[in-house]
Here is the input.
Amino acid sequence: MRIAMIQLAYGDEESVADRTERVAQLVRAQAGHDLVVLPELWGAGGFAYQGWQERAEPVDGPIASAMAAAARDAGVLLHAGSIVERPADGSHGPEGKDLWNTSLVFDAGGNLVVTYRKIHRFGFGRGEPLLMEAGEDLVVLDVPDGAGTARAGLSTCYDLRFPELYRAQLDLGASMFVVPAAWPMPRVAHWSLLARARAVEDQCIVVACNTAGTHAGVPMGGHSQVVAANGEVLAEAGEDEQVLSVEVDLAAVAAYRKSFPVLDDRRLPRPGE
Here is the structure.
């Protein structure tokens, strides 16, 4: 599988409309890849909480429409990062809020094939927990691996700190995790370490796409990376806007698990057992 990660940089001076058009062109430039991945909340701003209400949109809103067209034009499976979702039907979650941090994935025909609402909200009572509902559903997606299909688990940014999420996706058949993020520079060492840990402990490929630039006064960490199931870093970006193009062999995950069968030695019961 040929993967492109777009480590997007942006600041407060760029309008959402201009950024959306720029991102669409970046996606179109990745024609020839199988999977293209964008960062978390690149349209609304990962730390631009004050603008989220105004910039919220449904899953068929302007950003989604632009990304669907870009995926179709490029002929790629596109993980379009996430949006601040406000459902078109006006529905609210169990806490009475009407916003979610929602990832969108489009197939090569431009069809929205799956969404993922971020389960773990970052902010310690502010930001996401104050404004957004928590997602509830584990999401795995079939992706092409050259010889058929493999399964990719979806998560977002702060989710990376919760290993039980990834172990649950492993039990659903995942051999790859795709993690868009808006992870800030002060904790970028955690970002790098945790992505590698999730790869090693679950023997899965990790595709971790972060944000660059500075917005809402917060410098972003960059350092997007692709990590093999044995923990080897196959590619890593720097701090600035960058596109990483990486070939990964999803079929090799099963071979590695067979040669080093650590997962067979699990002792604690799995959920439902």
The chain has seven helices and 14 strands. The helical segments are 16-28, 52-55, 62-74, 128-131, 163-171, 188-202, 251-259. The chain has one domain: 2-265.
